[in-house]
Structures
1.
Amino acid sequence: MRHNPDYALEDLEAIKDLITTHPWCTFVAHTPAGLIASHYPVILEEQADDDGALVLLSHVGRPDETKLGLGGAGGTEPSELLAIIQGPHGYISPSWYGYRPNVPTWNFAAAHLYGVPEVLSDAENLEVLRRLVEHFENPLPDPHLLDATDENSDYARRIVRGTVGFRLRVTRFEAKEKMSQDKPMESVRSIIEELRGEGPYADPALADRMARVNAAGLNDPALNDPALNDPALDDPALKGPSPKEDAR
């Protein structure tokens, strides 16, 4: 992920929030057979909050643990796994900026998380699966939990052996949140309005994320002065990025 300080997401709590609200994860492993990718939901390990660590819990269906080489499965040495989390993202039309010249871009939030996975026991895996089901079922009016009935509990214990749970303690990460932070606030406001509209690129979730990321600027009277938001002014700090920069 190319580093850009304008969009860098370095706050650990913000990254945890991104994972919690967007738990569908892409896992990428470099194996003797080449690059292998799998897709599974993740949750955060709760006790990790005590020491400020970032730890993911997930599982794969057999035989994905061998394909990914989890914990040395398949006769390989335990190696690093990349977990990719992607939040709201979408196309931003140059017609929404309110000034020219400009080019289109794509706003997004994403985190790349690295660590060596630790395979869990069947008992630990079952507990992770219980928590995972609770995470998604609890908002429903009639949650269907793994332990909802004795019969369901027995069924869960039987099928858990078809999955392999693992813990990923994140040792390094790169995260980015590109939400038009470098644009004049009038342009940001216009983009948010378009995303909340009914056009082909409407995306309310992305609009909400943009509003949250740019809240300080949107609520600052000085930054909402039309005179100060004119990108035609000579001050480079008040202009949008060059086409070359914005395209990245």
Note: The first strand starts at residue 24 and ends at 31.
2.
Amino acid sequence: MKLARADTPDGIVTGEYDDGTIVADEGTYEIGEDADLLAPCEPGTFFCVGRNFAEKIDQMDYDIPEIPDWFIKPAVALHHPNDPIVHPKWTDELTYAGELAAVIDEECTDLDGEEDVKEVLRGWSILNDLDALDQERRTARKAFDGSGPLGPVIETDLDPRGIDMETHISGEKRQDATTDWMIFDPYETIAFLSERYTFRPGDVISFGSPANPGLIEPGDDIEIWYEGIGTLENTVVAPEDAE
């Protein structure tokens, strides 16, 4: 089942999503007509794993980590699907990175393996891990307002192993991979991080980007597709063109 959130005349609703329609307790809504799609959850924190695809590690000349290598984006990083991404004035090197994302459904910590993790997950979504590559250190590069486009939905019934993904920039395929190429298994990663953090409902854990993340500029259309979930779409705009 796919879950989505939308801004409607009845307020923000969450419900089952099917082909542009959300069925919620408050009613039925058509995206683009009487509802605007929002990110499918409101994370307090994004826990983002890097260096998790061997091909990308080779491409970027990184060392292979012995344990998951992660960083954190704050709640203000959340950006909705379809909303324009405003290219920050303070960077000349904004990059995309299409990543699988897990969404936590209940407060939890110190999870013991895959079965424990499955019990606390709401489902799976897509993150675009935006990165201001010319800034120094990870926090400056990755933890800014709107740096985490998320969505379009949460798929509640998905095996995250062996699913295909693609990223297209203005129609050109830039990333083409499968989650089988991850170094650290998604369930293993969530359990590992839970030894250090208490997750809360809506928190997001992402699992790194395959090879070929790259620069984006105003006018670029970004489409990140993960099999079984859907496509996260945004367009990059210049600051002067933002509403």
Note: The two ends are 34 Å apart (CA to CA).
3.
Amino acid sequence: MANIFRIIFALITLSLAAYVFLTGNSHLTPFMLTFLGLMLLASGAHELGKGRNANAVASFVTSAFVLTIVILTI
């Protein structure tokens, strides 16, 4: 289940990043970073399920950092 969410969030992040890059419209950057943080959160859950605790902790910490930055910039 976490793998499906990871793929969905990755596709949304990629499409928003491509849109921001091609149009130069940076108003969607907070949304892109939010989905990036959610993708990292889902990736951490996936890694935790596979027993890779070091990778899971790294993903959770990075996700918390990205989501904190998003909240602070709103």
Note: DSSP finds three helices and no strands in the chain.
4.
Amino acid sequence: MAGGVGPGGVRVGGPELRRWLAWTAAVAVGGAVVQALPVVTASGALRRRCWPRLAGVGAASRIALTFDDGPSRASTAQFLRALEHADVRATFFLLGILLDRDPGLGREMAAAGHELAVHGWEHRNLLCRSPAATYADIARARDAVAAVTGVSPLWYRPPYGVLTMSALLACRRLGLAPRLWTAWGRDWDTTRSPTMIWETIAKDLDGGGTVLLHDSDHASSPGAWRGALAVLPRLVSWAQERELTIGTLGAHEDMGRRRRPGCGAGPVLG
């Protein structure tokens, strides 16, 4: 028979090797599929219909206002002033690498009554990261937020809204609940005017929804945050006209409940 015997007793070039290679390939493909399965939640319409809790659907009398990609002294501080003027509190999903540069800004945000949550240490697509790297990224960011606020954060939102199985398992271990959004402004592009941003938000926004905007241009076009800032007064007026309360994700989801949410409370994607 052609071929010799390799490590582990596998006959090189024989049927044993071919079976072993086929099995290895099947395992690799299966693992990749399992890892990527939660990516289906990136579809906003599907997420709202099948996983409303993950989408951030909460009390119908409220709107949760959330921001991603900060904190940045140049931009986030302006959002804080606008929110103070409107008497609104929001949830900020922070990048650990930016919080580490300016922990004082994080403390100012918490002192103003805003909720600080985890967006990861770096803004990188999780599909390109190993399970170990994913866990390390989320854990490091969680610890940075906890160090600034003195309490463990509740929420996690992945960069680009792309969840993986590794991220969900990390959330379960770290006591974080993954939350995405029901409406967003696609406000990372400077070619989009405040009117365009608002129209994109409004088509999916209703009582019980969660809005995503960006308070930093760390992962977007330089200065893109100005469009989101300009939209805030319109969002506040829209909510007031409908007698809806704008607030943090925590208040939105846990109104009338006094237990801490987490990945262990119900289905991971529930």
Note: The chain is about 45% helix and 10% strand.
